[in-house]
Specification:
6 helices; alpha+beta; 7-stranded mixed sheet; about 35% helix
């Protein structure tokens, strides 16, 4: 009796336990590969996304919270700098460009980012790559109640150029916290990378405090 035949008869005799063992090994290998892929993709997303800034300045508090909030739009805002401080930083001879970012409001669950047109005109989110708009749109005005919608948010919310909307106070959508002011969508960002973080920039009076 040859060794392969002995193995075959042993496996056949214990077919149920053999199938359970094989299934357990396959499940463990699949789970290992899934965890590895999630780890790799998460590491790539966080290391390759820096929004084009060399430094992040903000209110005193957690440095990790500041970076997560300003760059990745996660966590709650640690607080805003005074607008006079921003202007002083911008005028400093060692600063090439300073872009204010204020978060804290939402549009039906999607975060809003208060900023200035220079974000789209001067900032490169990656070497040689700037934020671009789809055809037919334009950047919002510095003092107008206008907005540029992120591609993902615009698709989910059905926004298009010319639409008007009322933001909501806070990060959680609550119909009772609706802004009185109305904003007009002037442009929609072209898709950059497939991610669930959507940029939706607007400028309001609260951002200047």
């Amino acid at each position: 009796m040859t060794l392969p035949l002995i193995i075959y008869r042993s496996l056949r005799q214990h077919a149920l336990s053999t199938l359970i063992t094989a299934g357990s090994i396959a499940l463990a290998c699949g789970l290992l590969m899934c965890v590895w892929m999630v780890k790799t993709q998460s590491q790539t997303a966080f290391t390759q996304t820096n929004a084009g800034f060399d430094a992040v300045l903000g209110a005193r508090g957690s440095k990790l919270q500041l970076v997560l909030n300003a760059i990745f739009h996660l966590e709650a805002s640690a607080g805003n700098l005074a607008f006079a401080d921003y202007e002083a930083i911008k005028r400093h001879p060692a600063v090439k460009a300073a872009i204010p970012i204020a978060v804290g409001d939402n549009l039906r669950g999607y975060r809003l980012v208060g900023t200035v047109p220079e974000l789209f005109e001067t900032v490169e989110y990656a070497p040689g790559k700037k934020y671009t708009l789809v055809a037919g749109g334009k950047i919002f005005g510095a003092d107008a109640k206008e907005a540029v919608a992120g591609s993902f948010a615009a698709q989910r919310l059905g926004l298009k150029v010319g639409d008007a909307f009322h933001p909501f106070h806070g990060l959680a959508y609550d119909a009772k916290n609706e802004h009185a002011d109305s904003y007009t969508v002037t442009g929609i960002l072209a898709p950059r990378i497939r991610r669930r973080i959507a940029w939706s920039g607007f400028r309001c009076g609260a951002c200047r405090r």
